Amino acid sequence: MLIVTALVLQYDSAFSFNNNDSIRSRETIDLSFIDFLISYGEHQDALLLLKQYKGNSDAPIIWNDSINYYIGWAYYNIKQLDSSIFYMQRVSKQSSFYLKAKFYEAFEYIYLNRYKEADHKLNTIEIEDNRWEELRLFQQAANALLQRDFMRFDNLSEKFGYTDFTFFSEAQELLQYKTALLKNKKKSPLLAGLMSAVIPGSGKFYAGYRGQAISAAVPSVIFAASAIESYYRSGPKSAQFIAASSIFGLFYLGQIWGSALSVKTFYELKDNEIRNNIMLDLHIPLRRIFSN
């Protein structure tokens, strides 16, 4: 209720109306209020005010960068990254928001798997301070790692100075993620299936699901023992043996098929986990540095 009341009051002070009730711009827009709205999650209200002001031909040119930044920032917060990129691109070097807009824009490209565009953006950021050069190097290295370009990652990570505390630990963790990615190799579904055919559950172990290997092996042994017992007690034509052997056969074939599929599943699960960790470590320094 407080935010809504503040919105009405600020809206009246940010814009004035003529006799025809059409909006005409003032010489400035209250960007502190826009920042307040975004900080409190009122992104749509912020976008409404910003776009009304941006669409007015009387808007001073000096405010264009700030308006573009805040529109991009609002879209970023509601995860409409393509729209955010569109406006972040339009923030010029003269703006105090320039570096934040460009580094977040690169982050958004990486998040969207648009790695080449991220590289291009990072390469074209105009930097005059070593701190920003270190941040650019960090983002470039993470981008290379996500593409599994280990040679380029090594060339970039060797230049890490580890002088900026805001991403010191994250830069070190990139080296650990490289090791994890190298260990997470694609395995053979055929081999996993053959292993489980010989020793039930061993294909799951090979794929990486060690706990599931036991849960696949134990029932197979129990069903096999039940079928064997039925065979000796009632004979091969008995209903008891047919039922027991059918259950064993279905479970046996199922665990072979499951082992073959688990190879791809485990690889993708681990790969996604590493990627999410890298993206988190890319995001945290930006939040620290730009205090958002």
Can you offer a commentary on this structure?
- Residues 1-27 have low confidence and may be disordered.
- The longest helix is centred in the C-terminal third of the chain and has 52 residues, at 239-290.
- The protein has 14 helices and two strands, in the order H-E-E-H-H-H-H-H-H-H-H-H-H-H-H-H.
- The protein has a two-stranded antiparallel ribbon with strand order 1-2.
- Among the domains are: 1-94, Serine Threonine Protein Phosphatase 5, Tetratricopeptide repeat (Alpha Horseshoe); 189-275.
- The chain starts with a helix and ends with a helix.
- The chain has 292 residues and is mostly helical.
Keywords:
mainly alpha, Serine Threonine Protein Phosphatase 5, Tetratricopeptide repeat, two-stranded antiparallel sheet, 73% helix, 1% strand
Brief summary:
This protein is mainly α and 292 residues long.
Spatial extent as radius of gyration = 29 Å
Q: Approximately what portion of the residues adopt beta-strand conformation?
A: under 5%
Strand order of the largest sheet: 1-2
Low-confidence stretches: 1-27
Q: What is the number of E strands?
A: 2
CATH class of one domain: Mainly Alpha
